[in-house]
Amino acid sequence: MMFRIALSLLLAALAVSSSGCLFWKKKNHAAKPSYQCADLEASFKVRWLEKRTSELTAEGKPAAEAAAQAEQEFAQQFAYTKVANPGTH
Predict the structure, then answer these.
(1) Alpha carbons 51 and 70: distance in angstroms, whole number
(2) Residue 36 pLDDT > 60
(3) pTM reported for the whole predicted model
(4) Nearest of 17, 80, 6, 61 to residue 70 by alpha carbon
């Protein structure tokens, strides 16, 4: 009988301590500087445009036309990024 009571108390204590109620407060983490995000977006844009331009030229489009189409597709597909619409953000 004493074993059951001790086991019940142990399980209750474990349930309370592992529920996260004691550690619910979030720690303050420093935000990433915005320039890192801008650099990442710019790098992504360059790589995406190079890849898409090469795909379009492989399909037979002239290089200038392929680059213009790739730029237009990027602006449409990634309109939510700052690099797709530099004047609006």
Answers:
(1) 9
(2) yes
(3) 0.58
(4) 61
Cβ pair 74, 48 in contact under 8 A: yes
Rounded Cα distance, 24 and 67, in Å: 50
Mean pLDDT of 67-89: 86
CA atoms within 13 A of residue 9's CA, in its CB half-sphere: 6
List the chain domain ranges: 32-84
Distance (Å, rounded) from C-alpha 65 to C-alpha 70?
9
For residues 25 and 13, give the distance between their C-alpha atoms in angstroms, rounded to a whole number. Answer: 20
Distance of CA 9 to the CA centre of its chain: 43
